[in-house]
Specification:
With 143 residues, this protein is mostly helical. It has one domain. Helix content is 39%, strand content 6%. The strands form two sheets. A two-stranded antiparallel ribbon has the order 1-2. A two-stranded antiparallel sheet has the order 3-4. Strand 3 and strand 4 form a beta hairpin. The N and C termini lie far apart (44 Å).
């Protein structure tokens, strides 16, 4: 059984925030889950709260057949995951950028992300727009 990070309305035996996923083709497959966990770790290391990160990720569309995952992590024609290192790293960067708009956390400027993504999709740079999901609040710096 696959699990999704949607917030459950009823407490049960599943870990908080996890509910059974009723559809296939979700980023929460084992390979995709590694990407999500890596981004969660990166954001926590940058000072974001785990609860805020998980709640924000729960609101992101994770169907592999849709942007930004189609062609990046999902081969729409053959219906299988694309897990080359370049694609995986770009997916992590897009997820981190889409949650924070922070180029330092994403490891690339917005233009570099668009150029790299367009190259993988074999499209022009103007044909791709960076995701704009729920933005996490900038963490306060502890001094």
């Amino acid at each position: 059984m696959e699990y999704d990070f949607r917030v459950s309305s009823s407490p049960g035996s599943l870990p908080s925030g996890l509910v059974p996923c009723t559809t296939s083709g979700s980023l929460y497959r084992p390979a995709g889950l590694m990407i999500v966990v890596e981004v969660i770790k990166t954001l926590i290391d940058a000072g974001y709260k785990l609860e805020d990160v998980v709640q924000a990720i729960a609101k992101i569309p994770m169907q592999l057949a849709n942007e930004p995952w189609a062609g990046l992590l999902w081969d729409v024609t053959n219906r299988r995951m694309i897990m080359s290192a370049d694609n995986r790293i770009l997916a992590e960067r897009l997820l981190a950028y889409g949650l924070t708009s922070d180029e330092d956390i994403a490891g690339r400027t917005a233009r570099e992300l668009r150029k790299e993504w367009a190259g993988i999709l074999v499209k022009g740079i103007r044909s791709v727009a960076l995701p704009s999901w729920v933005r996490l609040k900038i963490p306060r710096k502890v001094s």
